[in-house]
Amino acid sequence: MPNQDSDKKSNSPKDIRKQKPAYILTDEGMKKLKEVFNKLFDSDQPSKAKLHGVVNLDKSTIDKILNPHKKKGVNEDSLNRFFEKLEEHCLDKNKDITKFRVKIDYKSVNRETKNFTNQGKNINEKTPILVNNKDNSIAINKELLNKYLLSLNCCEQKKQFQNKTNSQVGFFIIQADTKVSSWLRCVLEQKIGGFKTATKIPIKLGYAERQDFDSNFPQKFKHAMKTADNISIDMLVTTLAELYRQKTVIIYISSNSGFTFEQLKKLSSFYSQLVKKTSHTRKQHKQVNKPIYFILFLIEELKHNINSQNFKNISLLSLNEISHNDVNSWLISMQNQHDSQTLLNIDNGTFKQAKQFSIDPYAAIDDICGCVFKLNEGIEEIQNYWKLEHT
Length: 391
Description:
By secondary structure, this protein is an alpha/beta fold. It has helices at about 25-40, 50-55, 60-65, 75-90, 140-150, 155-165, 180-190, 205-210, 215, 220-225, 235-245, 260-275, 280-285, 325-335, 340-345, 350-355, 360-370; strands at about 20-25, 105-110, 115-120, 120, 130, 140, 170-175, 200-205, 250-255, 295-300, 315-320.
């Protein structure tokens, strides 16, 4: 006799959006956290604004950490980041701090499932966004989805970036959660003339550059310069200026331990030399309307005690939230374009669901990927498209 359930649709892992583990502080963890707060702030209840300035997490994430009784939880990366920034702050103030321990000071909790529905139907019942592979198999067109995602409203950041690059040169610090800073970088790169054919040079600063910046920083460019010989900063500036005569040049600078004030000071001086050296070439490009740019990106967080406003030639581009209005405007834009609306089938139900999205940038993009794009693994299926290109 056939099984009575054989005709029912199975809930395979592909049919259900995977829930990521979330973590909350235990009673022991909250007690330890209050002791840390008393050491740092002379109060066991510092304001969220003050905490945001120290740990650089959005206020909604901080609220979830400080209120474990709500059982909303945060991902482990956010919690570890919270602890690490507090530890750094304690070290700077010569205060001792006991390490937070998993299962003792914090524990996993079932994350509250958002009930994204569309006129009574689960969002996953919408037609998937599909493409035909060469072997006639079907796959989700994630490259197209990423293209849509890069048009998500970051109006303030885009406007500031465009205003600062009117002269086709600029130095920018991308200040955002490490998990979305690469996405914001990709959004801004769309505003750079000649980006597709640009020379892109990613470098990472470490111990050697902290010890002797002037000697060791130029050596980071040896691979891009295709030389085995040691080079000076003056030689580096001259070579980069020559590259810029032909095409857009973009330098991506990161650090394995955050940027110090002294490093920013040196980088600011390096950038000033580049601006001066490329001045004549930029005038020539502008005269013939050549959209050729010279851009420096810092894609790592600053130490908490550094104010980028001390450097007039460096612009800070921060992303602390993606508001419901931003998502709503983006949905309208997607709905009004024939190709995206055909694929995404955005309707009133989609706009209702969007009101439930998080405003935390990473979580908001994850919600879009899961709800609007119907990707079972959310943001994890898209973020490979944000990897830095090497040329």
